[in-house]
Amino acid sequence: MDPDRVRTVVLADALPPAFEAACLVRCTEVAGLPGRRRPQQALASPPVVAPRGVLAEFDQPAAAARLTALLTGLGFPARHDVHSGGNRWSYDVQRVLLPESRRAAATAMMATAWRQGRQSLLDATPLGGSSPRHTQRLALAYTAWRAVLLAGGRRRRTDRVRVHLGNHDLATVLVRAARLLEVRAEVISRPGCLMVAVPAADAAVLGAPELVSA
Fold first, then answer.
1. What is the DSSP string of the chain?
2. pTM
3. 44-66: pLDDT as tens digits
């Protein structure tokens, strides 16, 4: 895949990692989503302004590391950087940086991958179990859930695992992806965000078993 060529279609081999990258960016952006877990700064402190080249910010280092690895694998020179801030309460912001000269191509690639991946997952056309399209659809389902379990404000309760989102489209995709993986998911609305919940006993099926035990 030529990373500098703006494509109207993401090729099949590149679609799962590109779609996962798009899901990660949709979980949390530089502008921030409602409910970000960051201490409030004192009123006298100036706001933190993200520098040029910041593609996304996360609370969890694993999410930033994953996006960096995905973009690097797709041919983009991404870099993981940690910004520390706060006065009385300190915090770290996990940033994924990309040269401005490559940002447009990366953003276009992820936008195209999101459209293709979403269309594939929401398509209700029956597919045979051995069909390459079915295999890719399952891969996309796993990658969507892996992204949100890393970056979507995960919470575990006794009987359920919840991910907090600010994006209705992503919530719809997650419910469909869970159904394809034979897991029941439900959307719960809260002021400022959505939650998608799955039974804790089934969460390990969704592609990141090491994450759901924490």
1. --TTS--SS--TTTHHHHHHHHHHHHH--TT--TT---PPPPTTSPPP-PPTTEEEEESSHHHHHHHHHHHHHTT---EEEEEEE-SSS-EEEEEEE--HHHHHHHHHHHHHHHHHHHHHHH------TT-HHHHHHHHHHHHHHHHHHHHS--EE-SSEEEEEES-HHHHHHHHHHHHHTT---EEEEETTEEEEEEEGGGGGGGS-TTTTT-
2. 0.83
3. 444 445 567 899 999 899 999 99
